Amino acid sequence: MQATLAILPGDGVGPEVTAAAVAVLEAVARRGGHKISMAEHLIGGAAIDATGDPLPTATREACLAADAVLLGAVGGPKWSDPDARVRPEQGLLGLRAALGVYANLRPLRVHPRLASRSPLKDERLKGVDFVVVRELTGGAYFGAKTRTHDAATDECRYSVREIERVLRRAFELARTRGRRVTSVDKANVLETSRLWRSTAIRVANEFPDVRLEHQLVDSMAMLLLTQPSRYDVIVTENLFGDILTDEAAALAGSLGLLPSASLGDGHGGLYEPIHGSAPDIAGQGVANPLGTIASAAMLLRHALKLEDEARAVEAAVEHVVEHGPWTRDIGGDAGTDAVRDAVIDVLELGAVGTPAFLAGVRACG
Ligand code: NAD
Ligand code: IPM
Ligand code: MN
């Protein structure tokens, strides 16, 4: 197998966690005899500093030409002046739009070893295993914006086509899991949410084997903490999905653990942890790389169709979560590199990757 990946380290801890995931991908390639070529490109604050543009043309073109894109994180205090003309986050949003990656899959499982890291009681965390499908290229993020000296607006706009395609992804995903979809909206107030809900009801007719329920986003925020094991696939609009997934990360024990895959039609996709540039710990070598490594596993699965390799990486991540070493955010004192090396050691020991081992491991998303 031959593939070209665009690697976008970005800002803050982005380069630290991306380097760890790249090392894991190199180990996977070595073991499987695959030729995966990876080249780094500028994005975010680093790109603003170098070129003035958070998404330089060279980066955009390399990403469009690549089989998939792996990204660390963008942003940080240096570029966060609310009156700044240009922001790192615009680079990421521009890239998501350019790649057309409208469906952002954010799987979450709670590992029993980390249940004590969550602020929730252990019994509430048993069996938690859901995927949030977040619409990623529409809504208030991409609507018209205005700003005068004393007022501002962000237009939230959704078309039926935009809603349908992400809902279909969610239903298709549910077919491979528990056959339940929870569609989250604010249909009691927002017109876009009423369009979302009636579209969801119509799309559900195409999937009679999948059960659809609706939940208002405010009560969903509460239910995620009180009954998280009830959910299978949760599908929602861009802004709601952003907020609910950071909330959900508290269930898993750390934001640093959560991966994501952003998928569209006709491109291999964009893979990134859900966390940001973590300015408070950047440069110290202590960031948890497991969310980015798990994102690389999703890349192997969705973009490169290397299912066995994806599962082997996920199994190695699980092994490290189970036995350590752990970074500070989950209660250990290991550095990013030690965790990276442990994942690679488990991969190379070959205990994982054998059919017997894989049979016991479920794909996560
Ligand atoms: P953040 O996700 O960067 O950090 C929130 C908290 O989680 C911090 O305490 C941080 O130390 C911790 N954390 C995050 N990732 C971790 C990891 N891998 N290991 C250990 N701890 C980790 O959120 P924030 O502080 O609100 O945002 C900082 C910047 O990141 C902002 O500029 C924001 O726009 C940007 N951001 C970027 C992305 C992205 O690039 N996809 C995502 C979210 C936020
Ligand atoms: C995320 C981030 C981004 C978002 C920001 C950095 C634009 O919070 O990937 O979750 O809001 O989508
Ligand atoms: Mn976010």
**How many DSSP H or I helices?**
13
Major β-sheet annotation: 10 strands, mixed
The name CATH uses for the topology of the largest domain is Isopropylmalate Dehydrogenase
Secondary-structure element series: EHEHHEHEHEEEHEHEHEHEEHHHH
Sheet with the most strands: spatial strand order: 2-1-3-12-11-4-5-10-8-9
Rg value: 20 Å
Distinct small molecules bound, one entry per kind: nicotinamide-adenine-dinucleotide, 3-isopropylmalic acid, manganese (II) ion
CATH homologous superfamily name of the largest domain?
Answer: Isopropylmalate Dehydrogenase
Average pLDDT, all residues: 95
Distance between the termini: 22 Å
